């Protein structure tokens, strides 16, 4: 068995083992296969070296990556190398900080209500006229705004997962191989019902029918694709000329999820709700694996920092009054 075939076999075994543990690893398939091909193309023999791994990492994104993307690419490779060392102790283990410290999360763009209204209105103008396309995208973006769903979760919904009688979504096998139920606001239920009626006029409906479907040609009746959705969103966004208030290059589709979380926290602050008591419920609703991921919003978003600061000032004033 050649070194290349042996490495490919180890990659396949590693991915199979991770899947047995419940991990979704679609991106790892191509990532680690690309690494194995990179090693073969260079006719490398002997132990895998840190230099070889670092050179491969820098080829990501067509060689135009950043230290942040290099870090994340190397981190995925490091997990595989750790697995590989069980069988072949010779591979070198790159240091976690080879491309600098772990990149932190940056502030998202928090949409104002009028921006979401503009986005949905723009989606309604999509062509072709008379097709399901405008309704599909308007409903998709509206659902993400009102529930904080990840785009992948929304696109994987089947018709049976949308229970409008109970006002409930079933989100199955999500990013971390867990399922959850989400209660829906009555206005969201009404919007989903309206879209479902429109969809039924275009394609037959069964329990396993994708909820959000393509409307043209070979895509008719097929689930909307992630790239297609992002392409449509980016086109609408660029035409709306929003002022970017986040730390990314432009407002993102995923920021609808962040906006949902932040608006909920802001509402609780204004109502005087004990946010600490509600955090676990919000974390579960969003499908976070760690509650610290939910608490991140309190420190990363200026709107919440202002509310928290005001609450702290009132606390100090009350504490001072007790000593007067």
Core attributes:
324 residues, mainly alpha, hpI Integrase, Chain A, 3 domains, 3-stranded antiparallel sheet
CATH top level label of the largest domain:
Mainly Alpha
> How many separate helices?
13
Main beta sheet, described? 3 strands, antiparallel
Strand content: under 5%
N→C terminal distance: 83 Å
N to C succession of SSEs: HHHHHHHEEEHHHHHH
CATH superfamily of the largest domain: Intergrase catalytic core
**Main sheet strand line-up:** 1-2-3
Q: What is the CATH topology assignment of the largest domain?
A: hpI Integrase, Chain A
Number of DSSP strand runs: 3
- The computed structural class is mainly alpha
Q: How would you briefly describe this protein structure?
A:
The chain is mainly alpha-helical and 324 residues long. Helix content is 56%, strand content 3%.
Describe the structure.
The protein has 324 residues and is mostly helical. It folds into three domains: 3-84; 113-240, Intergrase catalytic core (hpI Integrase, Chain A), CATH 1.10.443.10; 255-322, no CATH class. The chain contains 13 helices and three strands, in the order H-H-H-H-H-H-H-E-E-E-H-H-H-H-H-H. The protein has helices at 3-20, 26-41, 50-57, 67-84, 113-123, 133-147, 151-155, 186-200, 226-240, 255-271, 275-286, 291-300, 302-322; strands at 162-163, 168-171, 180-183. It has a three-stranded antiparallel sheet, with no helix packed on it. A hairpin with an 8-residue loop joins strand 2 and strand 3. Helix 1 (3-20) packs antiparallel against helix 2 and helix 11 (275-286) packs across helix 12. The longest helix is centred in the C-terminal third of the chain and has 21 residues, at 302-322. It is globular. The protein starts with a helix and ends with a helix.
